[in-house]
Amino acid sequence: MFDTGNTSFMLVASALVLLMTPGLALFYGGLVGKKNVITIMMQSFVSMALTTMLWFVVGYTMCFSGDYTSGTDIGGIIGNFNLAFLHGITPMTASPVNPTIPITAFIAYQLMSAIITPALITGAFANRVRFSAYLIFLVVWMLFVYFPFIHMVWGGGIMAAWGVKDFGGGIVVHNVAGFAALGSVLYIGKRKARDAGMHNLPLFALGTGLLWFGWFGFNAGAEFSANGISSQAFINTQVSASFAAMTWLFISWWLEKKPKMVGFLTGVLAGLVTITPAAGFVSTKAAVAIGVLSGIICYFAIALKNKFKWDDALDVWGIHGIGGFTGIILLGVFGWTAINEVGSNGLFHGGSSFFGLQVLAVAISSAYSLVITYILLLVINLFTPVAVTKEVEERGLDFELHGEDAYLEEEPAIAPIGGKKKISVN
Questions:
Q1: Distance between CA atoms of 222 and 234, rounded to whole angstroms?
Q2: What DSSP letter does each residue of 383-407 carry, written as one string?
Q3: Alpha-carbon separation of residue 156 from 74, 126, 160, 398 (angstroms)
Q4: Taking the CB of residue 238, how many other CB atoms lie within 10 A of it?
Q5: How far apart, in Å, are the Cα atoms of 255 and each of 248, 271, 299, 370?
Q6: Distances (CA, A) of 250 to 147, 243, 253, 317
């Protein structure tokens, strides 16, 4: 009944996407100071388990049950709850997007994308948030932001009915996560204690490599079939990342006087993010343009963030928020049905109405995610403090919140707040 080649392809793609979350943990872990490595990595790893639980209970059904056209979803915003706890799904049930693969492969792939999305946000409020508050935030943010946009864009909701396109997750992953990051920074505020910043460039580089590797599953897998479109998405991913990295390198070299590794690797990520919504809908020549533009736009978005003094610690808004925003709009420019017949023609191919639709959709997602994230944090703080104290920031969240250190070089001279002095294991 099922095509073994397509099924195998989707299982491998799903595994690659899951690998991106540990890659993100290493990426973020290298960028923070030594005393906050465990905290930021824990925030990524815990999503692998907690998001899976949430996905099983209500996530999948909120995203992919019912549709707006038939009136079987809830207002075109979220799905119905007929598939809660994966009710009625068997190994022989076909995928709703490709009947040659089992629905379980589709569920697994979408789950892996869901896992990394809230983890992306954590880089913005690094070193400032209590772990218990983060767990609550992860759950409510997925319920009120991520799941609705998955349904609206990919699950047959209202934006899908309008004709909005998003191949790999420009809106539903990167844009909403990036603007949620900005909303969280505006609510939580600046760090109260000085942070040493990046402590391990090789760790950061390793994380980037794992993200780059996993991204081929992220983008090529979004076709849900091993065919020419998945191959197009694959090569477009590599091309955009490469052109963006070199663009960023030369801009930073010119302005900062030295060719820096951090800039090059950040450019890689910008190119990967920006091509994601367009990967299977545009030509490779368009992917070159998208890569170059992403390197320029995201670089100066971070410069703008610095000018406004937003304490987005690891530049989540500048890379994911603006990168996703830019990618959706550039899909409205470069989209071409000669590449993918289920796509739409962009501005360069006579599709002015499609361009306007893409701009409208990403403006809605950006504003909604920013505002709702701010409100969610405000409500959470009524029940439990979201931010840690200045004293905890100064001592480091790793030992204060988790009782662990990433580097057991020496025993701390002071005891944790409200606790006993740590006993050295050496």
A1: 10
A2: HS--BPPHHHHHH-HIIIIIS--S-
A3: 11, 35, 5, 42
A4: 19
A5: 11, 20, 11, 31
A6: 39, 11, 5, 22
Among residues 298, 330, 297, the alpha carbon closest in space to that of 316 is found at 298
Instruction: Judge whether residue 426 has pLDDT over 50.
Output: no
Cβ count near 330 (within 10 Å): 27
Query: 179's torsion region: left (phi>0), alpha (psi -120 to 50) or beta?
Result: alpha
Can you tell me whether residue 74 is helix, strand or coil?
A: strand
Angle, vertex CA 47, rays to CA 361 and CA 164, nearest 5: 15
**Which residues are paired to 102 by β-bridges?**
94
Of 209, 211, 233, 235, give the one whose Cα is nearest residue 222. 233
Longest dimension (CA), the chain: 69
Total count of residues recorded for the chain = 426
User: Over the stretch 189-201, which tens digit does the pLDDT of each residue have?
Assistant: 999 988 778 999 9
State pLDDT tens for residues 2-55: 999 999 999 999 999 999 999 999 999 999 999 999 999 999 999 999 999 999
Residues 6+ apart with CB under 8 A from 182: 124, 310, 312, 316, 317, 321, 370
What's the rounded Cα separation, in Å, for the pair 28 and 116? 13
Level-2 CATH architecture, domain 4-383 = Orthogonal Bundle (1.10)
Task: Work out the mean pLDDT of the chain and round it to a whole number.
Answer: 95
List pLDDT tens digits, range 314-347. Answer: 999 999 999 999 999 999 999 999 999 999 999 9
**DSSP per-residue codes, 80-111:** -STTGGGTT--TTPBPSS-TTSBHHHHHHHHH
Separation of CA 160 from chain center? 20
Token pair in block for residue 185: 């920074």
Residue type, 17: V
Q: Identify which of 278, 169, 226 has the alpha carbon closest to the alpha carbon of residue 11.
A: 226
Report, in angstroms and rounded to the nearest whole number, the Rg of the chain calculated over CA atoms. Answer: 21
Two structure tokens written together for 370: 């920013």
